[in-house]
Every structure is written in structure tokens, then in C-alpha cells.
Amino acid sequence: MAELWELTAREAAELVATRQVSARELVRAALDRAEQLEPSVHAWARLDPERALEEAGRLDERLRRGERVGPLHGVPVGVKDIIYTRGLETSAGSPLLRGFVPAEDATVVARLREAGAIVLGKTVTTQFAFLDPGPTRNPWNLDHTPGGSSSGSAAAVACGMVPAALGTQTVGSILRPAAYCGIVGLKPTYGRVSRHGILPLSWTLDHPGFLVRTVEDAALLLEVLAGPDGLDPACAPHPVERWTQACRIGPSGLRVGVPDRFFSDRAIPEVREAYGRALASLEGAGVQVREVKLPREFEAGLVAQRTILASEAATFHRRWFDHRRDDYGPKLRALLEEGGRIPATEYIRARQIRRACRRGMAALFGEVDVLATPATPAPAPRGLESTGDPSFNGPFSFVGFPSVTVPVGLSQEGLPLGVQLAAAPFAEATLLRAAAALEGVCSWGRRLAQPLPTTAPR
Fold this sequence. Notes:
Blueprint: H1 9-17, H2 23-41, E1 44-47, H3 49-64, E2 76-80, H4 107-114, E3 118-123, H5 151-158, E4 164-169, H6 175-181, E5 184-187, E6 207-212, H7 215-225, H8 243-246, E7 255-259, H9 263-266, H10 269-284, E8 288-292, H11 298-324, H12 330-340, H13 344-364, E9 370-374, H14 394-399, E10 403-410, E11 416-422, H15 428-441
Parallel strand pairs: 2-3, 2-4, 7-8, 7-9
Antiparallel strand pairs: 1-3, 4-6, 5-6, 5-10, 9-11, 10-11
């Protein structure tokens, strides 16, 4: 059997359910792995070991009484530090919220707990989920960024500290770090998963999602987290589906679209080559691959997205920014200053452009089932001054369509490369079916990052 820290979420839950492993053993293994690697990776804003072990003990006792709480019974998870956790500090990587302890869980955390998951702690986020980097390093190479803003969640999953972690994406904050760290990241359709209890960056662009090791785990997490929530007015009334079953349908007959511009033009050669190999492998498995023409509004949408992001971020942070601007990182401070100068007419025009982009992008899915692009223009860049380029992920955050990244190989430097898939709104079943097909034809397997322990300063 694999080491406990190597297990996927589904495998861990099944071993607990069949009493081959206890929840306490899983949590202890995760904490031991974190103790070994955290001095070099810096994935955690704060761990909560005592409470996690206590909860594991309670869950073990309930299982002994024949009570399985849910499909994640006993599985340790990480929670991005902009997501409320009852009784555990949520500081968003900022001195502005240092010491803030929410009185309630975010809906996504409450649903994890209801499914039997155990919160191991809060993972590092860039400040308020924007671009100013935190201390987290890429576990594949500690001299490179893990991406952001879900930096700690990606790094923790990639090196086996937890099998799953919550993240959020406003532009590229789930899919980019997932690609850089060699794991699966899923951003569901806007409105599929509740935002209640999550600090906003841009409330019409923010998407809760998660980072896991396999596509099947992504489907399992979505089954736990999706569904209507009266506490979030943007949360859609669509019912939960059996997305894990969609992963097992098989690829034959799927139609995959390759955008005619932007993505391949901006990717470096080895990214284009890995992308091309992945597409060829899908064709070999019976998938139809064809070029599609992006809508003419596509490039205007890239500009409009920044307008909406800056305007909404400035509006949310107005309560603090005027009298505590020095507590903001330079990149977020510049965004908020920019947003404060944008007139209402420009913001409204940007939202009109978004509606046009949604119509144009939705029309593509009459021709194909999913779009496939490189996940990032290049592997994770060297240095910790930047979280990398989110430009390939942003278009699908802008229109609110579901997207996923799947690892497909390594660069010449040994850094992960990923392929991004996107589907029509609320077509997660099709998206996950295609992602499982991609995962099946690539030789990634069970790879985990193995960073060398160090005593590098935090």
C-alpha cells in the first residue's frame, strides 16, 4: 500500500470507511509530512493540529458506532486563508485582518465538514488573493513560484501534505498554481459553488474551487461542495450531479476545440509541444480535435476584465484603503488606486462587453464539447517576486465558464506542464469526462513533488 500521505482523497476515504486506516492515522501522517516539508515549502499560514486530531478521534468513534458522516469521512484538507473557518484565524495574508477569527464557517467549509473532512489548517494566499506573493515555494523546485493566489493550497497538495485543498480563482488563481505544481485544479461555473463566507476580490469574477491530485477527486469534491445556497444570491439553483460517474464514461466521440489564436501564439515552444502531444494522444483515444474561431470580442474582454476587477476590488477595500494604504502590498495598492479612478460608465461598458463575450464563447460549444489550451504560457518562473502569468486562465474566469487543468508532463528543467480544458456553463459533467480522458492518455500517474527538507528562513 502507498504511504498514507500519498493517497488521493477517494482512496483515503475508502480506507477509513473499510476501517483499514483510522482518521487519526491519516491526520497524523499529514501533520508529519507537513512537519517535514513546511520549513522549505511554506504552504501553511497556520496549522491547527490539536483540533484536527480531536476531530479525527470523534470521527473514528462515530465510525465504530456505524456512522459514516459522508464521502470524505476522515480526510484531511487545507483551506485557503481568505475562506472563513469558525474559530480559526482568517487573515487573507494581510496585517489588516491579523487576529480575525470568524464566528462561522464559509458554506464550502461547512459542506466539507458535513461530508466528514477534517480541516488541517489555513493555506497561504497572496494578500487578499491578488498578485503580491506570499512565502510559499514550488515544491518541484524551491527556487520557483508555486503560482497564486492559491499558492499554499497548490503546494500542500503537490507534495502530499493533504490530498485536497480549497482555493479561489478571480483570474487564474486555481488553474495556474495547479499547472505549476503538477496537480488538478477545478474552477466550476460561476454560481455552481457558494461564495458565502469568502472574502471577495471581485464579487462578479470570484469562483470558489479546489486543488486535488486526480480528476476523480475533483468530481468527488464538486459533488460535496456544489448546490444552491440561499446565503449567496449568485449561487444557481442547479442540483448536484453524479460527476464521479461522468469520469468513467470514456473519451470516444468527444469533440475538442483548439482556439485559432492567442493561446498557442503566446506559449513557449516546449509548452506548445506538450500541448500538441496531449491533443495527439486524445485523437488516438477516439476524440475529435478541430480548430475553432474565438469570437471577435475576445480581445476586448481581456481589457474589460481588468476594469471590472479593479473597480470591484476598490469598492470592497474602500473601508480600509483610505486610512491604511501602507498595509497593502504594492501590486494590490496599485490595483486599488486604479480602480478608484475608473468612472461608472467605463465599468458598465466592461460588463456589457462581458455579456457579448459570454454569448460569443457559448456559441463555440455548439461546435465542440470542450476547448483545450495550454494551461500557462510557460512553466513556473524562477524567483518568488511574481506568481506567474494568468492570461490563459483569465478568459474563462471572465465569462464564468467551468475550467480545469490536468498535468501532462515535465519541462526540460523538470517543472510540471498542464493542459487547460473549458466547457459551457454548468457542463461540468462533460468537462470532467474530457479531463478524465486527458488524464488517462497522459503518463503523469501518481507523481508527487519531493522537495528537499531545509531550514530556510520563513
